[in-house]
Amino acid sequence: xxxxxxxxxxxxxxxxxxNIPKKQVKPKTKSILFxxxxxxxxxxxxxxxxxxxxxxxxxxxxxFIRFFDAIKNNHxxxxxxxxxxxxxxxxxxxxxxxxxKYITYIRNMIRSFYxxxxxxxxxxxxxxxxxxxxxxxxxxxxQRKIDPENILGTNFPLHSxxxxxxxxxxxxxxxxxxxxxxxxxxxxxxxNTFIINxxxxxxxxxxxxxKHTSFNSDYFRYFLYHFEKSLNxxxxxxxxxxxxxxxxxxxxxxxxxxxxxxxxxxxxxVIADLARFYRYIDNIVLKLDGDYLxxxxxxxxxxxxxxxxxxxxxxxxxxxxxxxxxxxxKSNKWTVIPDNTTLGTTRHIYRKIDFTLIENEELRWDLKxxxxxxxxxxxxxxxxxxxEFLNRMHKYTxxxxxxxxxxxxxxxxxxxxxxxxxxxxxxxxxxxxxIFSIRTLLRSIQLKYNISExxxxxxxxxxxxxxxxxxxxxxxxxxVINRHFYNxxxxxxxxxYILFKLSILTKLRPGExxxxxxxxxxxxxEQYGTIAYYSKMSSKEKNFATFPIDIIREIEHALDLxxxxxxxxxxxxxxxxxxxxxxxxxxGASEYKVMHLNYPYRTLFNSIISELYENNQISRWYTTxxxxxxxxxNAFELLEDGxxxxxxxxxxxxxxxxxxxxxxxxxxxxxxxxxxxxxxxSLLDVDIEGNVEVNKSENALQHIVQDDAGSCSSSKCIxxxxxxxxxxxxxxxxYFMTTLEKIxxxxxxxxxxxxxxxxxxxxxxxxxxxxxxxxxxxYLEEMYSIRGEL
Length: 790
Fold this sequence. Notes:
The chain has 790 residues and is an alpha+beta fold. Helix content is 51%, strand content 9%. It has 33 helices and 16 strands. Strand 9 (528-534) and strand 10 form a beta hairpin. It is elongated. The N and C termini lie far apart (88 Å).
């Protein structure tokens, strides 16, 4: 390899040094240089050059002269700090004075020379620490405007102390997608040993947990440099960090950015970095003490993970825990903190509500008082609709010289109610939710604005539209999905397959299954086991359910599979069975290695269904709720086959027959199943001769029959001589006609007939009422089907 290079000989280098005036070089420096060159370090530097740029002696000579020019007047020192100061000054001199084409070679030579000097001339306690920060590369420097002293956008910060500098290996990628690694120095302006050590550990942790290594930006360098100053207090323990220090730091960094003394981030803010650091120390305290450091309702680990933390602080929202026993906050921007009653549910989230959106100050106060004293998530969820209502009310009354006149107020309420009812882009269920919240608000201000009781009664919910049709998985589709699910999870995420199986085999909703706790099995024997679980309908009280032992064993298997995750999970996650390794694409704090499996399960389920459906392997699209529909649909088949009774159906499905039918059965079979099982009769042997129409036909004659249940379309009764009982003979006539508006009449009739059936002790009487009941139910079934009610 040496023959490929035309290297300067030792004598030639000596001549270069001897030709430099003695005033420009210290004898000690010359002596060390001679030792360095004779140790072959010089040749190793040349050999490491990848290009052939230095093959020629003339170029070697040019670089050596520039190198010597950089170091000639420096005192190298004998301590870690003096050596570091010397190294920093020389590297900064090279940055400012050496041409770009030479700079890489010069930096390598400077570092090589200093490493040689330390090894042969010094005895240092922190030698390895000092060597680790002596880098030979330099990033693009910051603008002088935000780094006037040239101490931040550099690996060689002037005025720094060696122990204040931390070197971290960073990862990056070029435009071609190739990855590479490089070292960068981070400068923390602090003499506090505790701060230096905790930030060093934090940087090392960030390197492990930050996928995109966003911490190595110029912006983050500035964040670290000013960290201790931003605290505004002497911190010597983790427990000195608090809500106060957090917001002190927010204000400090905010002032730097506003005064253009710190780089700003387009998609990120210092709040996110502070929250990440505070989560880090919170987890350290958790590991040491078994409990979190930050436990205040307005400052805790949950808030530090919330997406609303950043926007709430930047937009001036106050974190508020609503309690009617406390006074109403004066601020007009609230981030509502969820209370403990919603723990473990999807409702345990922070919500921002902005009262400044209400144009009228008095109405603004009315809404604040309503929200505060009602303390209902439903009303908070409908906050935007309440704001719209009050602003419309303010504009309407302003146009009409509003003076609390009752008739004017009633007029506006009527108009607004009609507007809600006429909306075509939302469901009746949504309309009713809006109506309910507005009516509750109106009741709270009823006396103040002279709103009549009749007007409130008029502001009522709409009739419920067609209920959600169940979408049970067909047998053929289930076989395909089950096989695919098994293959996707075998040997790697089997707990997700267990979730899928349990969703098919049990009455539990997806959320109830995923939130099963590790101590949920309360008893078991050889055939059955009982579990405790939280239901969305139980108001945080546990429900109990008994299942065959095979299902209990599936739960126990999930406990075994997720035990490794249990050992390293956060306390709030450790109580759950279904937790697992964090997914790379999961949203949230990346430092948490274990996550709840709600997101992974739904993501996997949806991806499997999407793939199978797009490839025409299954007949329809399904959601996670389709599994419960399947379980309930299967239970109804058992009922039809006479293998279980109505009571057992309720036990198996966890719902009354009415609710199960309305929400979970497939649409094409739910009407008859519902009526048959609710009234415990069979309609298979009943056919109707009459007609059911949506509206009254123009050809219908006004012959009211069957106690206003319908009318007769014949000019003359064709059953005058019939021996059928008058209570239902019209219902068996082809000229009988009824409309959907008669549904309430038929509902009253079947309820009355059912009571008579139940009270009858005479066999013949019971059969008579049963036949009449079935005939009326057959009409009701037809009417429901036409209207789409069932």
